[in-house]
Amino acid sequence: MTTPIKICRGCTRPIISLLNPSQTLISSTRAAKNPRGLQSKFARTNHRTFTTTKTRAAISKQSPSRVTAGGPKPPDAPSSIPSGTPLLSYAQKLAVKTSPTTLYEAAPQKVFLFSSYTAGLFCLGAAAVNVWVNVYNLPDGIHPAVPVAFGAVGMVIAAFGTRFALMPAGAIRSIKILPARSLRATRVAQQTAIPVQLEIEARSSLPFPGLPLKRIQVDPYDVVMKAPMYNRKAAPSEYEKMLMRREQEAQRKKDREYEMNHLMTAPFRHGGQAISILFSNIRRGLTGEGFAPVTIKGVKYKLDITSAYALEEGRALDRIVKIEQDPAIARLAAQRKQ
């Protein structure tokens, strides 16, 4: 059976195709069973041979990428750095140097030590005198409950004296990074290309003045701080910076004028400033304020955070050692930032 087909736009002669009636019937039944939307792409492109050559080429080029994109993805490589470990790359850069790098160094604490040991010695002496006079050498005719009361008072005073004497115990004097060439690598340090170790100088835990400082060599993982040393405040805006600069200049000019107009009373003012600093150090010796807790190999120590030198304002130490946030200390730091 011959069926004429209309001339297409790309040809100049009519096209005549010979169709088999049986094949035509089979193809029509297949088309009825399979809707047009479910036919394969190959069948749809064959019906438009003269108008979809570019489309077929594009489809054939895109097919490998589709198969590749739909294939199974390789599993992600496990991370080799644990999440809770501190950064050692910065510490390794400091360990390359030929001399020890000072991360932290406390200021001279002569007044603090003097006030602590003096208060402790005074309280212990008062407790001893009280017990000797009012407990063991009572006159005749005193009620038996009197020496018991004086003995309890003596024990309380001795406890206060012991606490004052133990105030400087465990205070860290300095923290340094030792050069990698001058130390013997431990098991943890051998795992890294450049071994890193810290040398910590701290006071003894015994309440006796004059004892030599003990030196501890530890890995950065063994030093745990309860809060970071560097507490960054919110950066002021340009307008706030300008106002602060103007206030500082005005205050400096005002202080200079007052100093020049009151030269006779200048020694008394300077003496008052020195006395205030002295009493603040004495208060620290009695109350223990201005210290941050630090744990080194499970032993508790403390850092002076009021008058001490810290590399990069404490950021270097924060990047090297491990920090476990204490909720109470974090709350106080947030209040200080505000």
Describe this structure in words.
This protein is an alpha+beta fold and 338 residues long. The chain has a domain of 25 residues. It is 47% helix and 15% strand. The protein contains 11 helices and 11 strands. The strands form 3 sheets. The chain has a 5-stranded antiparallel beta sheet with strand order 6-5-4-3-10. It has a 4-stranded mixed beta sheet with strand order 9-8-7-11. A hairpin with a 2-residue loop joins strand 8 and strand 9. Helix 5 packs antiparallel against helix 6 and helix 5 crosses helix 9. About 21% of the residues have low confidence.
Q: From N to C, what is the helix and strand string?
A: EEHHHHEHHEHEEEHHEEEHEH
CA radius of gyration: 42 Å
- Mean pLDDT across every amino acid position: 74
Adjacency order of strands in the biggest sheet: 6-5-4-3-10
Properties at a glance:
338 residues, alpha+beta, five-stranded antiparallel β-sheet, four-stranded mixed β-sheet, 11 strands, 47% helix
List the helices and strands and how they pair.
Elements: E1 2-5, E2 15-18, H1 21-33, H2 41-46, H3 53-70, H4 89-95, E3 101-106, H5 110-136, H6 145-165, E4 172-177, H7 187-190, E5 198-202, E6 214-218, E7 223-225, H8 238-261, H9 266-287, E8 291-296, E9 299-304, E10 308-310, H10 315-320, E11 322-323, H11 327-337
Parallel strand pairs: 7-11
Antiparallel strand pairs: 1-2, 3-4, 3-10, 4-5, 5-6, 7-8, 8-9
